[in-house]
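Input:
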Amino acid sequence: MSPLAIFNWLVLLAVLAPLLVVAYVSFTPSNFLELPAPTQLSLRWYGEIFRRGGFVDAFATSVVLGLTATAVSVTIGTLAAYAISRYQFPGRELIDTLVMAPLMVPGVILGLFLLIFLVNLRMTGSFLGLLAAHVLLTVPYAARTVRASLRDVDRSLERAARNLGAPGWRAFVLVTLPLIKPGVLAGAIFAFLMSFDNLTVSIFLTDRRLMTLPVRMYHYIVDITDPVIAAVSTILLVVSLVLVLFLERLFGLKRLFEA
Amino acid sequence: MTTLRSLVTTNVFTSASLVGRRHDLTPVVLVLPAIAVLAALFVLPLASAFVMSFHQHHPVLGLRTEVFTLANYARLGDSYHLGVFLRTIKISGLVTAICLIVGYPIAYFCSTLPRRAQAVVILGYLSPWLVSVVIKAYGWMVLLAENGIVNGLLLRLGLVDEPIRFLYSEFAIALGLAHAYLVFAILPIFTSLVAIDRRLLQAARNLGGTRLQVFRSVVLPLSLPGVVAGTLLVFTLTMAAFATPALLGGGRVKVVSYLAYEQALHLLNWPLAAAIGFVLMLVTGLVVFSYQRMSSRLLRGVAG
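Output:
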């Protein structure tokens, strides 16, 4: 093996190490994070998840929030993507930039500014405020993914529908939408992942009564570092791995980055 | 079938007539919800934070919106805040350098692999990006704690006599950030390396160039745009990273994003927090701008 290859595999090992270690620690029976390796494995910490500090509630909040935000952002993202890729109109470029703009601003800044905005409106700590933030966060991903799949649709099919007398919206619903369905689904999964995983924006907009799972996990490990968090993390690792592999089959991860 | 399709598609509505009709309000209606959401949730908060940054946070009276002052910005010039800004720039610069030095050889190695292997290796490097920041930080805590795995190994190998305090330091922050953002250096460099025309390399070899010469005078210059893009990505992302420095710095070693978080949520000083946010964007923008000027001169030099 060439030195370059050895270097590559060593770095890859270091990159994967913290993730593998988390999965490993979650199966230890002991209370702390020590080596040498314990002789037996245990599911103790998976059981503890249900007994400790609001992980289940936070998970429920995250799922409801993620699904609602995804539904909203996929709808408006698809409409905007369709308009941008199929029509010429004044301000088209500007809107294209504006839709992607939330990606250009770091999460800390977005969270901070949204918090101040909500302070002004006296709406801090509300689900609606959190939902608004997550719609903002996920619109770019939904719009971008749908746009990429709109690019691949054979336009002559749309034109044929129009020529056969279908009005614009019918051509969209009957021809375009079925053709871009995988792209819309991929955009929805991508948007959901981005919402479900978000910590930096959410942490500014949550409080004791309203907490998402990443925020709950953050506050938990600031206080305590026991393997409960490893068990939660391992479940999340598996879930996101499954979703990502599904996304890869459906759409191709490479295209998500190219678009 | 083909004839039918060409019949319906060639005349009447060409693509020009489909998209070019004047006074068609359809696109406006379609983009309206997106514009409304972005204006209400992006532009308005930006404006209200800007106004907020000039208000006053009174220690007793709290937020005073009737006051307009530059005091919040002036306060960021004191030695404490300046120190945090300088530390953040230092850590981001260091992490960017590490990501480039480690990422370049990896991107080069990946570009020599067959396509399928490429995808697998890149996915491996992408995996930290697919995992919550909290999980990554927790993984490093397990590895680096005083009774953690790394110290356990060092002690058993007899390399140290007592455990090293890795955590809650600039080192831990830099390591965590480099881990989280390495792939953002690898991907653009990899893309620019793959795009290099193989015939150029062949020609250079045929003209008698050694491997090293070919790399230095053909491969490296052609991959510089990827290096520049990777530098910008990693630097801007690390300047504003929050969770990794917060957890691995333990609130003891503070960076700018943590300062903003602390002011906004623990001390409820929203005006100062807003000012920190704007100055962070400004500083990042300035560094990026001067780097772009420098690198475009460099790239032109290479091209000429």
